[in-house]
From TrEMBL:
Pfam families: 3keto-disac_hyd. InterPro entries: AL/BT2_dom (IPR010496). The keyword Transport does not apply. It comes from the Bacteria. GO terms for molecular function: hydrolase activity. This is DUF1080 domain-containing protein. It comes from Larkinella humicola.
Amino acid sequence: MKNLLVFCSAVLLLGACSKSSMTASKSASSPKAEKGWISLFDGKTFDGWKVGKNADSFKIEDGAIAVNGPVGHLFYMGPVNDHNFKNFQFKAKVMTLPGSNSGMYFHTQYQEESWPKKGFEVQVNNSHTDWRRTASLYAIQDVKETYVKDNEWYTEEIMVQGKKVTIKINDKVVNEYTEPEGVDRPKDMADRKIGSGTFALQAHDPKSKVYYKDIMVKVLPD
């Protein structure tokens, strides 16, 4: 009888552990499910994305977008919000290799080649010769400090509400910018103004290699 009770207890304990293990496994393997967040990249294809010149600078490796090659830009052109975002939170997991440079654009629009004229670039650069580091609002409000290391995944997040842009690294605010009323940009930056548009990832040069995954957006009310 005693042996039977021990056996039953073991079976119950094993079942509870198995259930707990399954739950933990499911939680670990599933994307971070947060209310309002929408995935823009399925980890397998470029569905919803479009690139013009130098399309070979973008490939998919192990569930991430690998960016490496001559100047090119991969634009989100998919159905989410008809690829037009005004107020939003946008985030991605990013990893840079040593000496690499890239960027994430917002409020931009599809352009066949060269650097996008419309919108803003949020810098991705931890050790490139360009002194503007990760989280810089490129040439608008730059960051000189280095907050993350090469060869390590980190989260970079952009939030736009009205005229205010907030940039976070690993959930820490490192750059905040509010566009002044009636701002007057130089001629070559005339379209770098808060408005609306889509997102883009930048291929900077053949010596740079950067990875992006878990690319998500949360649309915020106007």
